[in-house]
Structure formats: C-alpha cells, structure tokens
Amino acid sequence: MRVFIALSSPQFECEALDQACDLWGQGRSHDPADRHLTLLFLDEQTYEQCQAIEQTVTAVLANMPKGVVWQGQYIGAFPPDDGRHWAWQGPSNGALDRLRGELALGLNAPIEPWLPHVTLAYGPIEGDHHVPLNSEVRFHQLVLYRSLTQSERQQTAETMWANVRYVSIRGWEI
Q1: What is the pTM of this model?
Q2: Is 144 helix (H, G, I), strand (E, B) or coil?
Q3: Tally: H helices and E strands in the chain
C-alpha cells in the first residue's frame, strides 16, 4: 500500500477554502474533512513496515516541541509550473522543516524539495488564477495515511466532493 505522513488541522474546514473549491466545481474538490498538508511520501509499504513506521513516528514526536504552525498565503495552481491541482500554498518554516527532517531521518526516507500546500481540488487548472488567503494554521494532528486501491475508491459513497483517495492508518496529537 502507498503511504504518506501529513499534518491536519480543523482550520482546513473553513468557508474561505470551501468557496475556493467552488471555483472548480463540486465533485473535483477534496472533502473538507480530508484536507491535509503532506510532509513525506513513503511509497509502497507492507502492513509490517507500517507498524515500524508507527513506532518510529511515535519516538520522533516524543522529542519534538509542540505547536507546529504554517502560514498559508494564497490559493492557486499547484505545482505552480504545471497546474495539475488547486491548492492553498505558503512557505515552509523552521518548525515544519525540523519536523519533516526528523521524520525523514528516523524513517530513512528521502527529502525532496517541497512547497507546503493543501490540495483543494483536482485539476487541470487553466489560467493564472491566484486568490490571496493569508492565514496562520495551527496543526493538531500528524497522520499516517494509506492510499486507497482503485477498487476501494469505486466503493466510496457518492457525495458532492471527489471520492476519497486515502484513509488514516494512525494519528498522533501534536
């Protein structure tokens, strides 16, 4: 199963983000409860490997300060040069970089260059749309997710939002 680690916050469930999603039509947008900021992709992992990941994440978080925040700045095409998705974007900061770095070190995972973002809708996004949304986000949970298989995606209920693409394996309060 494909797994990744992300941060979640109740602040991702807000009217301003919902209105931004409306620009791209219902059915292409993330369910507000599923919005997250991805820290690391861990590729294909077995159930046993996921158990080891859980233990490592628990150990890393025991040595990390609480209170991770992020400054979202604007909503626009993501990645900026490709525009495959509609995302809330903003720069990284020392706390995010440290958390991401410590997790990658503990999990022996590669660190790729990144632009922190919260995917709001699936593209392609045409044109140079750019909506300012400057707001500080306080993260409340770190989550280990797994991607759903194609057959699991087809089994999800029809809603006004895009079908869920992943499910939480475990969450940690931060």
Answers
A1: 0.87
A2: strand
A3: 4, 8
Alpha-helical segments (H) within 23-155: 47-62, 94-107, 150-154
For residue 140, CA distances in Å to 37, 46, 66 come to 12, 27, 9
Q: Model confidence over 115-163: pLDDT tens digits?
A: 999 988 876 666 667 788 899 999 999 999 998 877 776 655 555 556 6
Identify the bridge partners of residue 118 per DSSP, sorted by sequence position.
Answer: 88
Residues 131 and 18: beta-carbon distance below 8 Å: no
96 Cβ neighbours under 8 A, 6+ residues apart: 39, 68, 70, 116
* 7 residue type, one letter: L
Other CB atoms within 10 Å distance of the CB of residue 16: 13
Q: What is the pLDDT, as a whole number, of residue 119?
A: 87
Distance CA 2, CA 97 (A): 23
How far apart CA 122 and CA 58 sit, in angstroms, is 32
Label residue 3 exposed, middle or buried (CB < 10 Å: 0-12, 13-18, 19+). buried
